[in-house]
Write a structure and sequence with these properties.
Blueprint lengths: L1 E5 L3 E8 L1 H15 L15 H8 L5 H20 L3 E8 L12 E9 L3 E2 L21 H19 L8 E11 L2 E10 L5 H14 L7 E7 L13 E13 L7 H6 L9 H35 L1 E2 L3 H21 L4 H7 L4 H29 L5 H13 L6 H7 L2 H20 L1 H4 L2
Antiparallel strand pairs: 1-2, 2-4, 3-4, 5-10, 6-7, 6-9, 8-9
Helix pairs in contact: 1-3, 4-7, 8-10, 10-13
Amino acid sequence: MKIEYIKNDFAKYNFDINPQEFEFFLQKSFDDIKKDIKIKGFRKGFVNRLLCEKYFGERFLYQKAITFLVESKINEILAKDENKIMGQPEIVDFDLNKIERNHNFSLIIKFALKPKIDLCDYKNINIPINKKNQDVVVTEEEIDKSIRQWLNIAFKEQGFILKNKYCQYFFNLEIRHKNVVILKENNICFDFDNGNFNYIIEYLSSHILGMKEKEYRNLKIKFPNTFSNSKLSGNNVKIKLFLNKINVISDINLNADIINQLHLSENFPKIENLIDYFRKQLQFNKKEVLKKQEIQEIVEYLLKNSSIDISQHLLQNHISITENKIQQQLKNKDFNLMEYLQKNNLSESDFKKQMIEENVKKIKIAFLLEEIALKENIRILDDEIQNFYQNLFHSSNFNNFEDFQKEYDFNYIKTTLLHNKVIDFLWNNSSFNKNS
């Protein structure tokens, strides 16, 4: 095997294949397919190679033999240089029609080379002292605001409930009797506005329980003869009801009744339990924000203090992939690139410059993290990938696993998990966290 390096971008691995070696792969190819070969007058799988070559032509095994040969040589290359090369191999200047079994021939396999990296001292990276062991403070005002925001969502998700003193329900109502509109109201509030309207909604409450904001319901109802509204009493009517808005009152008193109203007692027996839950959640969220800032500083430190040579070929390849993704995303939104640039107030040259800067940074970060993974023997196990993949699928909106796989490439997930593992390693070894 001879190796030729091209501008530190590529490596060409040149193999001189002699007839004896090629014969080995010809025989391997025949052994692989002989069980399926059928020639008239012979039992399937019991035809010898010589007869097959006479029947199908002596070159009928060449393509499969070359495939086995290439696989073997790629494994040989990976065993020697796996940490130096990347990407998919390319077969160079090869013509199957020129191969003769009794003559030597060349097989050239080209790989892209990983960039040269001069890695800085990445252990015990020092984060600015003002962040070291920084306390996370959550105020009572923040807790109160967070709970009220959540209550606004929770009550709206619960939908219409007849006896709910914490919400106002605004309806559009149309009632027809024999195709004649006998009652119509728009954006009328169930809580305070109209006694007659309240009686109607109360009577319909079992039919509209759980009705959500912006939801329509069509009902066929017969009102009793004793109903207070003379237009409705004793009549069969058709009702169109639209819940236009659920307004959660802003000055809710946080007490035990909230727990009962939202059926939370199993998880939060007392209102204090709910408050404590939100306190811990806010503390966790603040710590995560701080951690992201700290990780960003670690990454910036790596970029600033390490050197890595990005080839033009590698950069252009990444830019092309990014451009294609952007084009596809724009296409899905019935947008083109020029419209996107105008909307974001970008010139074409500014866009290209931004693309180059972003891709250079992404490439450098990826290779630096992978170099650290190599040095520290940080790996992602198959079980970790499968568990993450399955969890991501179950939390997605995909019903079909094959469609999900097309959207979330397995290798991309594996790489992302590896990068995250390296980042956690760096964060755990950084100086601000060392004595925590």
